[in-house]
């Protein structure tokens, strides 16, 4: 697992939700202490096939994208976060 760096504003550990906790169209982790540092990744941008097949990944009962796509969004969010975070 990739280490997640501290918040660049207040130095607290950010919250990166687990895939099963993510509903909606974006993966949005951030710092809950200061509320300033956040990242938003559109989950649909993580799809490997044309966007006209979006419905195939959507779980109508849970209203959640497929876990595999949320995991890709989580990975990208961690990479983006660590690029701008203070060095630990």
List keywords for this structure.
single chain; 88 residues; mainly alpha; two-stranded antiparallel sheet; 1 helix; 20% helix; elongated
What does this structure look like?
- The protein is mainly alpha-helical and 88 residues long.
- It has one domain (19-84).
- The chain has one helix and two strands; from the N terminus they run ββα.
- A two-stranded antiparallel ribbon has the order 1-2.
- The mean pLDDT is 81.
Q: What's the domain count?
A: 1
Largest sheet: 2 strands, antiparallel
Low-confidence stretches: none
Order of helices and strands: EEH
User: In percent, how much strand structure appears in the residues?
Assistant: under 5%
The helix tally amounts to 1
Q: What's the gyration radius in Å?
A: 14 Å
Category by helix and strand content: mainly alpha
DSSP, total strands: 2
**DSSP helix fraction:** 10-25%
Shape: elongated
User: Which whole number gives the mean pLDDT?
Assistant: 81
Strand order of the largest sheet: 1-2
Tell me the span between the first and last alpha carbons: 16 Å
List the helices and strands and how they pair.
Layout: E1 26-27, E2 41-42, H1 67-84
Antiparallel strand pairs: 1-2
Short précis:
The chain has 1 helix and 2 strands, in the order ββα. It is mostly helical and 88 residues long.
């Amino acid at each position: 697992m990739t280490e997640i760096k501290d918040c660049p504003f207040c130095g607290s550990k950010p919250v990166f939700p687990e895939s099963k906790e993510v509903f909606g169209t974006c993966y949005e982790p951030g710092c809950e202490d200061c509320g300033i540092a956040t990242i938003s990744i559109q989950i649909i941008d993580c799809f490997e096939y044309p966007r006209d097949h979006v419905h195939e990944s959507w779980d109508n009962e849970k209203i959640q994208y497929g876990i595999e796509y949320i995991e890709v969004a989580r990975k990208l969010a961690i990479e983006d976060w660590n690029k701008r975070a203070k060095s630990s």
